[in-house]
Write a structure and sequence with these properties.
alpha/beta; Double Clp-N motif; Rossmann fold; 5 domains; 6-stranded mixed sheet; 20 strands; elongated; repeat
Length: 699
């Protein structure tokens, strides 16, 4: 056995040497220098056996790391060195030396190489003596343990190249619990997608590499397959017999197996409707400390199924696995990107990684980090490979998110400019309200930028004016330019929300009521489309609580369904359509205090109505042409149109009257299914619209 390393003395000297170097980070190279100072004589024979000089190495380390500064600030230990110190807490000098020299990608290895170019440590380590130094207790690759209905994750971790980064605190908590004398069972609690199973896989990999305390070196993490355990166990007692056989096989290994049960909540009631379910069969075995268990489930399922069983809960130590924040997720993507690059044969730009994180946070509400960001990283790698692209750019990520989730993202292939351009073209085809067109376009451009900068969550615009003032045409223009997919459109008529309980139509009925298993219309939309186009009508008729709820949603508050899942509206455009009696706004509107802007529409003049009607008749002629009817009309028809305008003075009414009269006049021709083209000239005579064959348009 190698000599024991006085870790306390080593750490004290390490801090002193770091200050002497003028550094504030306790690094691996300073640790190597300190080790050579403290135990130079003991380990010098190792360097001599390799034909090297440890003194020259010390000089090189000093020369390259000495700073002419005095450091009185708090010292910080490098994360890699923290892992090495934990690993060597119960080992000796030689393990510390080889750990420092063999750190993947760390500076000590390169310093060693720079000092001795001809020295190849990884080749020399094949020497029998050095192999014993690296692993004084004879570390061998673990052999697979065969247990019914289980998979040995520790054995599988040897062949796995799946990287894992972060979660050091959670891993340390798991190891501490597993080393306890009593209640040494772990229960991982976290939402789906936060990495609970990956955490267990990381533990299995650490055990296979013996990067854990010595007490766990010979342990094996075995994943229990619940479907295999219960499958086909139809006879009474057959399931219990399988479970007892499973526990018996684990006991034979004498404490070396750590049983991992994913979806841990499902063991309550599994296998038997009575008292002999898997949870009740497991409790006495845990009480006798015959096996160790790691369970994983979500907070909600833990509360519903597991927490009520106090005897089961008290035998476990809970380890919360919280969702990573954006910065932690970005660092994880940077660490794993090389693996994805090798698999997909593409290169990920760092800006593309940050875009993955930002867009996942902004638009994918019903999933957790890092799972949703990793999925985007994987998907965009597949697309880049199929498109024969060598690099993944931020624009490619934006386009992918926009297409997959059917949302329009500003910046995806110049989408912001395209949307504004489409809106300008559509507004140009409308007549009247020229100032309102400019205001609307400005509001949308400014709000889109502010939403990207996260200054506002959603854009609420108030449309006010009498019922017929082309508001609907403006709403259609916004919809077709910014939100072309029909799935993202939602219209709410608040006149049907006059009672407080009608909020269930938006978020779903409470448990115990009819329809409690169905989501409300708002929640159903937000599940898949956080960026919506919402038109709210008749707000004055709604219950005040409904208005208050919608205000909170528009301002970015979470909407929770009956299952506890939260959704948030982001980057949406909401139109609050308010009809005023005389075209002027009176008093404070329901959404006025949170509105980004107000657009007040005026009725069209007679000239504007006539121009709009001419455009409508041309559009009607184009539609009739699809049915092989070529429509013309003379001056008498236009005189009739002008009289209709003077009589009604409302665009929608005029259009409806014109359309009905024209269709009624040529209805017989429309019923004729012959493929021959029919030229029709309309004329107005004796207070009636007539037609004759042939003719040309009135200019």
């Amino acid at each position: 056995m190698e000599d024991r390393l006085d870790l306390k003395q080593f750490q004290t000297e390490l801090e002193r040497q770091t200050k002497e170097f003028g550094q504030w980070i306790i690094s691996c190279e300073i640790a190597l220098y300190t080790l050579l100072n403290l135990h130079g004589e003991e380990i010098d024979h190792v360097f001599k056996k390799l034909g090297c000089d440890s003194e020259n190495l010390k000089k090189t380390l000093w020369k390259n790391n000495k700073l002419n500064k005095q450091r009185d600030s708090r010292l910080v230990t490098h994360t890699t060195l923290v892992s090495i110190l934990k690993k060597c807490s119960k080992s000796g000098t030689y393990t510390m030396l080889t750990s420092l020299l063999l750190v993947e990608g760390e500076i000590p290895y390169y310093y060693f190489g720079l000092t001795y170019p001809e020295f190849h440590f990884r080749e020399k380590i094949k020497d029998k003596y050095l192999t014993e130094v690296v692993n004084p207790v004879g570390n061998k690759n673990p052999k697979e343990i065969k247990i019914d209905h289980c998979v040995d994750m520790t054995f599988g971790a040897l062949a796995s190249d799946e990287p894992f980064f972060g979660r050091e605190e959670e891993l340390e908590q798991m190891i501490l619990v597993l080393m306890r004398r009593k209640k040494n069972n772990v229960l991982l609690l976290g939402e789906a997608g936060v990495g609970k199973t990956a955490l267990v896989e990381a533990l299995a990999k650490k055990i296979s590499k013996r990067e854990v305390p010595e007490e766990l070196w010979d342990s094996h993490v075995a994943a229990l397959n619940l479907a295999s355990l219960i499958g086909g166990a139809s006879g009474r007692g057959e399931f219990e017999e399988r479970v007892e056989n499973l526990f018996g096989q684990i006991k034979k290994v004498k404490g070396k197996v750590i049983l991992f049960i994913d979806e841990f909540h499902s063991i309550v009631g599994l296998g038997n409707d009575g008292s002999f379910d898997l949870a009740n069969l497991l409790k006495p075995v845990l009480a006798r400390k015959e096996i160790k268990v790691i369970g994983a489930t979500t907070f909600r399922e833990y509360q519903i199924y597991v927490e009520k069983d106090g005897a089961l809960v008290r035998r476990f130590q809970s380890v919360p696995v919280l969702e990573l924040d954006k910065e932690e997720t970005y660092q994880l993507l940077r660490n794993v990107k090389e693996t994805y690059e090798q698999y997909h044969k593409v290169y990920y730009q760092d800006e593309a990684l940050s875009t993955c994180v930002d867009l996942a946070d902004q638009y994918i509400m019903n999933r957790q980090f890092p799972d949703k960001a990793l999925d985007i990283l994987d998907d965009i790698g597949v697309i880049a490979n199929r498109m024969m692209k060598k690099e993944v750019t931020p624009e490619m990520v934006r386009s992918f998110i926009a297409k997959k989730y059917k949302i329009s993202i500003p910046g995806s292939n110049g989408e912001a400019g395209n949307e504004a351009g489409k809106l300008q073209v559509l507004l140009a085809s409308l007549f009247g309200n020229e100032q309102e067109k400019l205001k609307l376009r400005k509001y949308l451009l400014v709000s889109q930028f502010m939403m990207q900068e996260e200054n506002i969550t959603n854009c609420l615009l108030e449309f006010s004016g009498i019922s017929d003032c082309e508001k609907e045409e403006f709403i259609k223009a916004i919809r077709y330019s910014y939100f072309p997919m029909k799935e993202v459109y939602l219209e709410l008529d608040l006149s049907t929300y006059q009672e407080k309980h009608t909020i269930s139509k938006l978020i779903g009925a409470p448990p115990g009521y009819v329809g409690s298993q169905e989501s409300g219309i708002l929640v159903e939309k937000l599940k898949n489309f956080p960026r919506l186009f919402v038109v709210i009508r008749n707000a004055k008729a709604a219950h005040p609580d409904i208005i208050a709820f919608l205000k909170k949603v528009i301002q970015g508050s979470m909407v929770t369904d009956i299952w506890g899942n939260g959704y948030r509206m982001r980057n949406a455009v909401i139109i609050a359509d308010e009809c005023t009696e005389h075209g002027t706004k009176t008093g404070q509107s329901e959404f006025g205090e949170i509105a980004f802007g107000n657009v007040t529409f005026k009725p069209l003049t007679l000239d504007e109505l006539e121009q709009a009607t001419k455009v409508y008749m041309k559009r009607l002629a184009c539609n009739l042409k699809k049915q092989n009817i070529v429509m013309h009309y003379d001056s008498s028809v236009m005189d009739w149109v002008r009289r209709s305008i003077l009589k009604e003075r409302k665009e929608e009414v005029v259009k409806r009257d014109i359309s009905r009269n024209i269709i009624e006049t040529i209805a017989e021709l429309m019923a004729d299914n012959s493929s021959k083209s029919k030229n029709v000239e309309l004329y107005f005579e004796n207070d009636k619209l007539e037609y004759r064959q042939g003719g040309k348009d009135y200019e």
